[in-house]
Amino acid sequence: MRLAYIIALTACFNAATCINSTITDDNYAFTFEYLLKYGYLSNDVDAIPAQRRNDVFRKAFKEFQNYYDLPGDGTPNKETLKFMSKPRCGFRDILKHGTKASLSKWPKTHLTWHFHLADETACSTAQAAFDLWSQHSALTFERSEMPNADIIISWRRLLHYNTNIKVNGALCSDKFDGPGNVLAHASLPTDQAGFVSEVHVDGDEPWHIYVNKHPADKFSLHYTLTHEIGHSLGLLHNRRTTSVMFAIQPDQQYPVKLDQYDIADIQRLYGEKIQNDKPRRTPAPAPPPPPSPDLCSLDRVNGILILEN
Fold first, then answer.
1. Global pTM?
2. Which residues does Ca(2+) 1 bind (predicted)?
3. Is 55 assigned to a binding site?
């Protein structure tokens, strides 16, 4: 925690006279970490002169409000803070400057996947999530065994390790926060040889692991995996609330489907679905039989066959 910046944020909050006294010191720390985690504040905030920190924070806060169409002028308010507490994906909204994430994609269209230490029900739900992407693109997916899989899904908690340590290193750079807020995260494809994309799902959340409608007190694993697999394929967050790539988990996560822009985005990376079945040709109709000759029009008869009953 950068204490000096938190103190500056405290002053910024206190300057907002419209703020209710229910906004506590914990809000200051949470807001700072949130804006930093999701890309609204840069990692070099320590280098910003103290006299500019309030302005930098207000600009970041305003950018967040604009991104999610929230009312506000960069001044902290309870509505924005409440929105920040909603369950969401842990992937950044705003990427670092210079990141060529829009070009992140796999160099192939057939990918393998593995759900580490998951039961058959969870694996079936994962298959349904992959199917949504393959139904609308040239991508095909095959369930495989680790460590040969291109995409590895696993349950993780708090400070956690990657599943494929050989390729991705031991410690995941993004920890979970217990129940609530961050539900899962995933990595974009890279051009690294042997790259493995990992999808980490927070095991501390109450999950509905089936593909049918989820109860109100649980999160849909089907919806969350569809979203995270989108990241593993190269898609970023967007601002469309109808999109499965919207960062905030909607209250209603059933049925899970891609909107028209999700489909356009995945096809932009991998092309439209390839139809393997060649269209069947309709056989040409048989020619009609030749007409029977008219006996009265014959000029000559070579022979007559007489049959007796």
1. 0.82
2. 205
3. no
Q: Which of 63, 142, 228, 308 is catalytic?
A: 228
144 vs 156: CA distance, rounded Å: 20
How many other CB atoms are there within 10 angstroms of residue 224's CB atom?
26
Proportion of the chain above pLDDT 90, given as a percent: 60
* 245 appears as a binding residue in the annotation: yes
231 is in an annotated binding site: yes
pLDDT digits (tens, 9 = 90+) for 197-241: 999 999 999 999 999 999 999 999 999 999 999 999 999 999 999
Q: Is the pLDDT of residue 142 over 90?
A: yes
Q: Which domains, ranges and CATH numbers included, belong to the chain?
A: 25-85 (no CATH), 110-270 (3.40.390.10)
Residues in Cβ contact with 174 at an 8 Å cutoff, skipping those fewer than 6 apart: 90, 185, 200
User: 207 forms bridges with which residues in the sheet?
Assistant: 219
Residue 198: active-site member: no
